[in-house]
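Progress against Task 2.4 (sequence-to-structure conversion) is shown through the following example record, which the project officer requested during the mid-term review.
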Amino acid sequence: MSHSRTLFRVLLRSTRTRRTFSTSFPALVKVGDRIPDLELVEGSPGNKVNLSKELRGKGVVIGVPAAFTLKSAGKVFVVSVNDPFVMKAWGATLDPSTKSGIRFLGDPDGKFTEALDLSFDSASIFGNNRSKRYALVVEDGKVKQAHVEPDNTGVDVSAADKVLK
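Structure tokens generated for the chain above:
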């Protein structure tokens, strides 16, 4: 098994939770939608990343509620409503050698997540809204497949084996 596929599975396992949050209305992001033209942060607040510009060609965006790269998948980004320092530390823990090419991006104000209509109310637990767990397969900035967990945090429809078919 390749280092990238192993890391992708570890990433998914590390973010699993047995606790579930209430379900919410289905996400509005759908096949054919454009990736929002908004900035995320990588590693520090000054390092801005705009996925609408980064995703020229194939890519995968993985959304997780809190803190896999195969050649056929293209670029892989993990996005969380979190600060860049937490995401940098999470990336360093899961991929200390950075060989996978997976990038960990913070969405500190949740605007990217909200623009995809993939946030859910978790203020009573985390103090703010968080991202549903999802995986978007993107090509040339457009969503080709949307795998959004119906219970917000489970790992069923967004699991690697279902996304990378």
